[in-house]
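Practice problem: predict the structure.
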Amino acid sequence: MTNTGMTHDKTTLRPITDADWDGIMAIQAQCYGALGPESLEVMQSKWHSSPGSCFVMELQGELLGYCLAHPWQHDTPPPLYQTLPPLERHGKLYLHDMAFSAHARGKGLGKQALAKLTQQARAWQLNALALVAVLGADSYWQKQGFSAIPSPKPLDSYGPDALYMTRPL
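Answer:
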């Protein structure tokens, strides 16, 4: 995947820029209020650790969503609320966060974002996608081909209904 934007029905998936962070943080607050939002520093550490797998989705200049993903080699997800260092590209592509504003509903952005992540993971020769489903989203992720697997460590920071899920590539 190149760093050029990908467009679908006038929706653009493009790399994150410094100017996007106010919008990203606002969408995070809308979507994850029940968990407590992560700080700007923590969110940006995901981006800095793997800018090639982090992007925003916009329509006619309006930020509709964002995706923060990074390589991860462990069988447990990284804890929430902690910064990440730069990471090696091996193992899995961990989808840390994919969130959309209310204006994004019905536009198919989740499928577009997942297709872009899958393409990037394959380009990097990673063997799976992984994520933690929160706030009841596990049924959505199951429909996208993810399966819940036991996590060797508690997922307490992700909330009481958190499930670690993977999808082989």
